[in-house]
């Protein structure tokens, strides 16, 4: 099977259960999401243990699957970088709910470069100073 034409899988890696809850919230909005996998770095867990837990699933993942992490240069991000180098998966740090929604809505339609750009754009555009907007101030 040519894995390059398969819809990319989504991987969510976070400190604690943040990623799991983010996916739960995404599914509350969109319904059940197929081929999304969460991995949690729990207190006292070594990076090697996280890497081991991820290895088997990532081995089966289609080319260009996407890895989301919570904080750039944190342990989940550093572990994801190892897989990015080995498998060429894009890694997107600073994940938020709009990013996951965008990924799920468009991963069947866009090529990987367009999808990654759209995800990052959605994440940035979702950050607003609502108080400023509510007070009629221009927001840029």
UniProtKB/TrEMBL annotation:
Any one Gene Ontology BP term: phosphoenolpyruvate-dependent sugar phosphotransferase system
Occurrences of domain PTS EIIA type-4 (ranges): 7-127
InterPro entries in the record: Bacterial_PTS_sugar_comp, PTS_EIIA_man-typ, PTS_EIIA_man-typ_sf, PTS_IIA_man
GO molecular function, one term: kinase activity
Major subcellular site: cytoplasm
CDD domains documented for this protein: PTS_IIA_man
Subcellular location: Cytoplasm
Assigned keywords, A-Z: Cytoplasm, Kinase, Phosphotransferase system, Sugar transport, Transferase, Transport
The keyword Protein biosynthesis belongs to this UniProt entry's keyword annotation: no
CC per GO annotation: cytoplasm; membrane
PANTHER family in the cross-refs: PTS PERMEASE-RELATED-RELATED, PTS SYSTEM MANNOSE-SPECIFIC EIIAB COMPONENT-RELATED
Protein name stated in the entry: PTS system IIA component
């Amino acid at each position: 099977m040519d894995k390059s034409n398969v819809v990319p899988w989504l991987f969510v890696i976070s400190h604690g259960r943040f990623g799991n809850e983010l996916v739960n919230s995404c599914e509350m909005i969109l319904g059940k999401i197929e081929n999304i996998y969460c991995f949690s770095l729990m207190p006292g867990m070594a990076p090697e243990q996280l890497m081991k837990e991820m290895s088997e699933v990532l081995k089966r993942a289609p080319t260009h699957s996407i890895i989301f992490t919570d904080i750039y240069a944190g342990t989940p991000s550093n572990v994801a970088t190892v897989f990015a180098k080995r498998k060429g998966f894009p890694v997107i740090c600073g994940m938020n709910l709009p990013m996951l929604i965008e990924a799920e809505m468009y991963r069947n339609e866009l090529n990987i470069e367009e999808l990654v750009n759209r995800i990052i754009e959605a994440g940035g555009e979702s950050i607003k100073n609502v108080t400023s907007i509510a007070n009629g101030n221009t927001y840029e």
